[in-house]
C-alpha cells in the first residue's frame, strides 16, 4: 500500500459570533463546509500557507494571531483502479486563529472550494461539514497549552 502525508494549514476566523467557512467540493461525496485553508507547497512555511490559502478561498487578507494546535488524522483511501492502488493517507493540519486585515468576501475561482460564507457559531453543528471543523472550534474555545483539543486521542 502506498503511503501519503499531506500537511495543510487552516484559519479559524470568528467575528461577532460568526465563523468564516468555505464550501469544499471534493470528489468523494457531497460538498461540505470546511475551514478556509489548504495544502502546504514544498518549502512553504505553514504561516505563509494559511495566509495564502485563506485569501485564495475567501478573498480576505488575514494575519495569524495564534497557533491553536495541530490535528492529525489517518485513513485508508481505497483502491480506485489497477493503476491507482489503495493509499494509507495521513493528514496533518496546522490550525491558526486569524484576523482579517483587508480584502472582500468572494468565492474561490477554479479551486477546491466554490463558496465562502459567514455562519453563526450556533449553526455550525447543523451544517454538512468536514470533521475537523469541530476539532478546530474546540481548539479555539479551549486554547489547550499542548495544542490538542481535550478528549481527543
What tags apply to this protein structure?
8 strands, 153 residues, four-stranded mixed β-sheet, 2 helices, alpha+beta
Write a structural description.
With 153 residues, the protein is an alpha+beta fold. It has a single domain, classed as Nucleoside Triphosphate Pyrophosphohydrolase, CATH 3.90.79.10. 16% of the residues lie in helices and 45% in strands. It has two helices and eight strands. It has a four-stranded mixed beta sheet. Strands 2, 3, 4 and 8 form a four-stranded antiparallel beta sheet that branches. β3 and β4 form a beta hairpin. It is globular and about 50 Å long. The model has no long low-confidence stretch (mean pLDDT 92).
Task: Please outline the helices and strands.
Elements: E1 2-12, E2 14-15, E3 18-24, E4 32-34, E5 37-39, H1 46-58, E6 60-77, E7 87-103, E8 113-120, H2 132-142
Parallel strand pairs: 1-7
Antiparallel strand pairs: 1-5, 2-3, 3-4, 3-8, 6-7
Concise synopsis of the structure shown:
With 153 residues, this protein is of the alpha+beta class.
Number of strands: 8
Structural class: alpha+beta
Strand coverage percent: over 45%
Helix content: 10-25%
Uncertain stretches of 5 or more adjacent residues: none
Radius of gyration: 15 Å
Biggest sheet: strand arrangement? 5-1-7-6
How would you spell out the order of helices and strands?
EEEEEHEEEH
Tally of separate helices: 2
Q: What's the main sheet like?
A: 4 strands, mixed
Whole-number count of domains: 1
Please name the fourth-level CATH homologous superfamily: Nucleoside Triphosphate Pyrophosphohydrolase
Report the CATH architecture. Alpha-Beta Complex
Q: What is the CATH topology classification name?
A: Nucleoside Triphosphate Pyrophosphohydrolase
CATH class: Alpha Beta
Query: In one word, what is the shape?
Result: globular
Terminal CA distance = 25 Å
What's the pLDDT, averaged over the residues? 92
Amino acid at each position: 500500500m502506498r503511503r501519503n502525508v499531506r500537511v495543510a494549514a487552516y484559519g479559524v476566523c470568528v467575528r461577532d459570533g460568526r465563523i468564516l467557512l468555505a464550501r469544499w467540493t471534493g470528489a468523494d461525496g457531497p460538498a461540505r463546509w470546511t475551514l478556509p485553508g489548504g495544502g502546504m507547497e514544498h518549502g512553504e512555511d505553514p504561516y505563509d500557507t494559511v495566509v495564502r490559502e485563506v485569501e485564495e478561498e475567501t478573498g480576505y487578507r488575514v494575519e495569524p494571531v495564534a497557533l491553536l494546535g495541530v490535528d492529525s488524522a489517518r485513513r485508508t483511501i481505497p483502491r480506485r483502479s489497477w493503476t491507482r492502488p489503495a493509499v494509507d493517507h495521513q493528514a496533518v493540519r496546522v490550525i491558526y486563529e486569524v484576523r482579517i486585515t483587508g480584502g472582500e468576501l468572494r468565492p474561490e475561482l477554479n479551486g477546491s472550494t466554490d463558496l465562502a460564507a459567514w455562519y453563526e457559531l450556533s449553526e455550525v453543528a447543523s451544517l454538512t461539514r468536514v470533521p475537523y471543523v469541530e476539532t478546530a472550534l474546540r481548539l479555539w474555545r479551549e486554547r489547550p497549552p499542548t495544542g490538542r483539543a481535550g478528549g481527543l486521542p
